[in-house]
Amino acid sequence: MTAPRQDPLRDPRFRADPYPAYDRLREGCPVRRIPTGSGGHHAYLITGHAEAREAFTDPRLSKDTARFFAGRPSDRDLHPAVSRNMLASDPPAHTRHRRVATPLFTTGRVRALRPFITRVVEDLTATWRPDTQVDLVADLAVPLPVTVVCELLGVPASDRATLAASSHDLFDATDTTRIDAASHHIGHYLTALVDTALANPGDGPLHSLLRDCEEGGLDRDEAVSLAALLLVAGHETTTHFIGNAVLALLRHPEAFDRLRRDPDRIPRALDELLRFDSPVSVATFRYSTQDLSVGGFGIPAGFPVLIAPGAANRDPAAFSGPHRLDLDRDDARSHLAFGHGIHRCPGAPLARAEAEIALRALLTRFPGTRLAVPEESLTWRQTRLTRGLTALPLTLA
After folding, report:
1. 55 contacts: CB under 8 Å, gap ≥ 6
2. pLDDT-derived band of residue 204, with 50, 70 and 90 as boundaries?
3. Dist CA 357 CA 336 (whole Å)
4. For residue 5, what pLDDT is reported?
5. What's the distance, CA 48 to chain centroid?
6. What pLDDT, on the 0 to 100 scale, is given for residue 372?
7. Side-chain half-sphere of 191: how many Cα atoms within 13 Å?
8. Bridge partners of 42?
9. Would the pTM of this model clear 0.90, i.e. be above it?
């Protein structure tokens, strides 16, 4: 297998439409070595669906970021609350964190949150009127998940916009200094928030989370890292989920009209929308702790391994007509947009509820909505991990 000479994920054309590049990479080899950055380093990129599922569950692919980078020179300065969380750990540490996080997003808890999510959507869209323009990203897709997760963490309303901006900056792949600074703002803020709650016992949502942490064996610093993960992961990916879904429906008017006429079908459509344009393009960091084989392809020990749900979800070996949005697709639930295995996103039920309620409001109240700008003028975030629009201007109707 011949490695590309340059990182294919950094091609400017990749931002606007990654799927032709993913197809070429997968057709050449679904597990291949690629360059990363300009320092002569390499990683292994997995673009096949079967291979991605296998890799997601292979314990020889570690997520212990601190262990991998220990002793390696680096000019990065991420706050520990951001760099040492559940996403960057293996069992048994990961198991303890997961045991606390998973109950936060049970069917019952998310059902209890639905009235609050609905009120947030109603408040955010209260001033929307036909024949006016809105930016779906800035006016709905960003503030909705931020407001919900900040409610879970007990963050005062006055602090939410600043915290959301820092969460947004964490995914700015073009400026590492900005990323590091954002991590410290989030880490310091949540540390102070947790310390205040610990010093003043009560019955608020953060107090409830901290009691869950204590019962689950998480110390104060681990509680802060869990709060940071809930904020960052619960915000950015859901924002892109909503934005990508709306754009996909606008590009496929027959699907838009079908859901408009039958909004109760929206929950069933979410899996296909996630598969079609996954908000997570490349999963978070893993590395091989020993020589291993994925799908019959060898990966030597000591290399970063990038699993690409965005590519796997368009694999023709797993989905017939993978570049077609098909709301009747029977196998859409096998998408990997939320990952797979022990690291599958525990907040998936909440993200689905937020997207469903947002889509229902848009499709039923503004059934004639259309893009307010030429499609080719839309721009995408400069980040390899997530895939999402910088803005989605709409004309409501």
Report:
1. 46, 61, 286, 294, 305, 307
2. confident
3. 22
4. 64
5. 19
6. 97
7. 11
8. 35
9. yes
Q: Residue 191: is it exposed, middle or buried by C-beta count within 10 angstroms (0-12/13-18/19+)? A: buried
Which pair of structure tokens corresponds to residue 324?
């077609």
The C-alpha atoms of residue 343 and residue 310 are separated, in whole angstroms, by: 17
**How far, CA to CA in Å, does 182 sit from each of 131, 225, 231?**
37, 14, 13
Q: What is the pLDDT of residue 139?
A: 97
Q: Are 195 and 95 in contact (CB under 8 A)?
A: no
Cα–Cα separations (whole angstroms), residue 323 to 19, 82, 326: 8, 35, 9
Give the Cα separation of 256 and 247 in Å (integer): 10
Supply the pLDDT for residue 40.
Answer: 72
Instruction: Tell me which residue of 195, 332, 170, 175 sits closest to 265, measured CA to CA.
Output: 332
Q: How far is CA 111 from the centre of its chain?
A: 21
Q: Which of these, 286, 224, 235, lies nearest to 80 by C-alpha position?
A: 224
Contact assessment for residue 287 and residue 303, using Cβ atoms and an 8 Å cutoff: yes
Could you give the CA distance from residue 163 to residue 182 in angstroms, rounded to a whole number?
Answer: 9
